[in-house]
């Protein structure tokens, strides 16, 4: 079972990364803009299924590799930190693209595929989920339950952000501004990962 401190770190890390704009969240926002919250709420189940598959496969891969390659976890954390820094810059400079991304109906199959291929899964499996989550079925179930409790409301939030202009509600919520704020948070998370490695 996971300790309270491990759960706290996992919750904060997962929440930050799930809130970051990316391929899956952009699709959720686009679906909300196109179809509204009620008709898109089921897409969070496709997102969860995609992450369950991808995180589990990456986690098992990293767990088995780290037994013979003890340096792999640290290299992975450095790579994750660099990826987050790159993503923060990319998010800042492409903030307006989310507002023009609703070009068609987003299906559950499309969202599942995008999530399975989402690089965030590598970050979850290699840096945020504790290694114990991939060593025991009970610990895996506990970690995935925590992840699901975070993912569903955050996924619905992204759908609602996309739907807000469509409904004429919350005109002050601009996806581009939200993405720029997220880019600052992502950059801070990248620095914190590097700081933890250095100390």
UniProtKB/TrEMBL annotation:
Protein location: Cell membrane
Membrane spanning stretches: 6-33, 45-65, 71-89, 110-129, 141-165, 177-198
Designated name of the protein: Threonine/homoserine/homoserine lactone efflux protein
Gene source species: Paraburkholderia hiiakae
Keywords per UniProt: Cell membrane, Membrane, Transmembrane, Transmembrane helix
Keyword Cell membrane: yes
Record's keyword annotation contains Chaperone: no
Membrane disposition: Multi-pass membrane protein
InterPro entries to which the protein is assigned, alphabetical: LeuE-type
């Amino acid at each position: 079972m996971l300790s309270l401190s491990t759960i706290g770190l996992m919750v904060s890390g997962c929440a930050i990364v799930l809130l970051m704009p990316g391929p899956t969240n952009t699709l959720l926002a686009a679906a909300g803009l196109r179809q509204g919250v009620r008709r898109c709420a089921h897409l969070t189940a496709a997102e969860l299924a995609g992450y369950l598959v991808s995180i589990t496969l990456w986690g098992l891969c990293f767990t088995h590799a780290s037994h013979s390659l003890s340096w792999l976890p640290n290299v992975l954390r450095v790579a994750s930190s660099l990826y987050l820094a790159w993503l923060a810059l990319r998010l800042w400079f492409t903030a307006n693209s989310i507002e023009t991304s609703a070009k068609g109906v987003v299906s559950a199959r499309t969202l599942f595929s995008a999530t399975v291929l989402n690089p965030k899964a590598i970050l979850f499996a290699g840096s945020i989920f504790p290694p114990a989550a991939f060593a025991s079925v009970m610990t895996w179930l506990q970690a995935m339950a925590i992840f699901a409790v975070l993912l569903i409301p955050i996924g619905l939030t992204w759908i609602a952000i996309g739907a807000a202009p469509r409904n004429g509600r919350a005109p002050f919520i601009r996806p581009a501004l939200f993405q720029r704020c997220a880019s600052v948070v992502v950059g801070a998370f990248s620095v914190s990962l590097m700081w933890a490695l250095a100390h």
